[in-house]
Amino acid sequence: MLADSYGDKVLVGEIYLPVERLMAYYGKQGDGVHLPFNFQLIDASWDAAALHRMVGDYEAALPPGGWPNWVLGNHDRPRIASRVGEAQARVAAMLLLTMRGTPTIYYGDELGLADVAIPADKVRDPRELREPGLGFGRDPVRTPMPWDASPQAGFTSGEPWLPLNMDWRKRNVAGEAADADSMLSLYRDLLRLRRAHPALSLGDVRLLSARGHVLAYERIKGDDRIVVGLNLSGEAQHLDLPAGDLMLTTGGDYAPGRLDANQGVILRAVA
Questions:
Q1: N or C: which end of the chain has fewer CB within 10 A?
Q2: In whole angstroms, what is the distance from residue 95 CA to residue 106 CA?
């Protein structure tokens, strides 16, 4: 493949297709796109059984040597915090960063940014300008990244081309970096775990039974075995996960056999 002739490079394809057609873009004998974007999570029903099937079907469809990838959000569709709510957006972050394969993070999702309402006189997206009021505009997910609480959120010294999120004085990189319980801190903790544990970065995935509103799976690499349990609902759920030491939670305390509302946990399995 041409990209391979340039050394250690990765070719990513923004390809919107059903899984069975998407797989063709990996090519034969690894001579296709390294990472044909897997956009399934963007349109997925936020349901444990549905996600369980999705992961299983995607993994089964991958060609030999095909490396998986997962995309939670992009510049064309509503943000994850607007789709499932901020509490579940934390659970979604844990899903994205513990699933097998390469994760893609859309800017601002690591802060919990939601879609921003755009006044009619501020619209920039050509589609919204051509077809106003139909909800096709993509400006709400393309607003400036808020870096700090200084004027214009540290994004520019002038007026940005789209409005800032209303809560930018609080929801910004500097503010969340100083808050151990923030969305940004959760993302950073998840990324640290991925780097530290081969099971999360390179290991196999084994889906556990999907019961009620809980999606659970194991990541395994040699003796490194990690269990992930995700409560996709706003009510506490009971599920017996394999025994393990708590490594990280999206929030709240963890009691074996029970997940709090909107809680995800990562456990290091013990024999």
A1: C
A2: 15
